[in-house]
Amino acid sequence: MSRNNYPYNNDSSGPTVIGDVAAALAAGGALGEPRTAIQLPDPAGGEPGVYTVVPKDYEVKDLEGFLPRPLRIKQDVTIQDAESFINYAKEFMTGATLIFFDVQQETFVAAFEYHEIGKPSWNDHTASFKPRRSVEFETWLGTNRKQMTQVDFARFLEENLPDIVEPPAAELLQVALTFEAKKSVEFSSGVRLANGQIQFQYDEVVRGTAQKGTIEIPEKFVLGIPIHVNGPAYRIDVRLRWRLQEGKVVFWYELVRPHRLIEHALKEISQKIATDTCLPIIAGSMDE
Questions:
Q1: Mind spelling out the 3-state secondary structure of the chain?
Q2: How many degrees, rounded to 5, is the angle at CA 188 between CA 186 and CA 192?
Q3: What is the pLDDT of residues 55-87, one digit of tens each?
Q4: For the chain, N or C: smaller number of CB within 10 Å?
Q5: How far apart, in whole angstroms, are the C-alpha atoms of residue 53 and residue 32?
Q6: Distance (Å, rounded) from C-alpha 266 to C-alpha 212?
């Protein structure tokens, strides 16, 4: 064989002959052969990861995507009601499952494979649940302490009359209708009566003749509405406030300590979750 058939080294010691092709291929194949990673005990009892080292840049490649199923659950689930949250937690909970309750965000988060002493976890499987406020409570809370004209207040009472349990709905409906009918009168005074009513005196011109009249409205009333969707109804005390401005009366109302009612409702939900799942509830949140 001619010397010119082989590549040469830079020195004069002779040619560098390419080795056995089969051996070279075998060596390259061995370099890229899939190898199982170091098998550390898995807290969840799953299988160890499967990896391979490929020739290019000796990168480590994860082959989990080629397995029949994932090695562990990686899922963040958002639940929309308490019963579903409880059922999901009971289905997937392990001996390491904890439930966190963030009071500020009003959110429950179940960490199904949380850390144990000496056994850290990836925490890849969680479920969160934020109780939704009822439409009725959001309506009353959204208008709380906001001033309304006489007509606007009357219409607000009419639209939300089913939420009021005390005094009787018929009584408040009559008040609303009277305020709508008397929108052109001029109010002169308003006083609190001994029976818990507010009496407004007004002047009205009827067919050219000035007439005086009065309207009475409760100073307080009570709502019977749920705080959260599908939750129990709560008695919510409401105080009526008013101010006379140039012959017109301006109304607003104040819910009595609504934050306490929200806290109580969330506490009841928390107790139900803890009782039905038999899992501990941790006051706090998981930092990302």
A1: CCHHHCCECCCCCCECCCCCHHHHHHHHHHHCCEEECCCCCCCCCCCCCEEEECCHHHCEEECHHHCCCCCCCCEEEEECCHHHHHHHHHHHCCCCCEEEEECCCCEEEEECCCCECCECCCCCEEEEECCCECHHHHHHHHCCCCCECHHHHHHHHHHCHHHEEECCHHHHHHHHHHHHHCCCCEEEEEEECCCCEEEEEEEEEECCEEEEEEEEEECEEEEEEECECCCCEEEEEEEEEEEEECCEEEEEEEECCHHHHHHHHHHHHHHHHHHHHCCCEEECCCCC
A2: 125
A3: 667 677 778 888 888 888 999 999 999 999 999
A4: C
A5: 6
A6: 50
> Chain centroid to CA 56: how far?
46
The answer to whether 236 and 223 are in contact (CB under 8 A) is yes
Write phi, then psi, for 186 (nearest 5 degrees). -115, 120
Contact 53, 36 (CB under 8 A): no
The single residue listed with the structure tokens 């012959």 is: 247
Residues contacting residue 77 through CB under 8 Å, at least 6 positions apart: 88, 126, 127, 128
Residues in CB range of 47: below 8 A, 6 or more apart: 71
Peptide linkage before 167 cis (omega within 30 of 0): yes
Handedness of CA 85, 87, 91, 97 (dihedral sign): positive
Euclidean distance between CA atoms 240 and 155, whole angstroms:
15
Q: Is 258 left (phi over 0), alpha (psi -120 to 50) or beta?
A: alpha
pLDDT tens column, 136-170: 999 999 999 999 988 899 899 999 999 999 998 88
Find out whether 230 and 211 touch, Cβ atoms under 8 Å. Answer: no
Q: Exposed (0-12), middle (13-18) or buried (19+): which is 217, by Cβ within 10 Å? A: buried
How far apart CA 217 and CA 221 sit, in angstroms, is 10
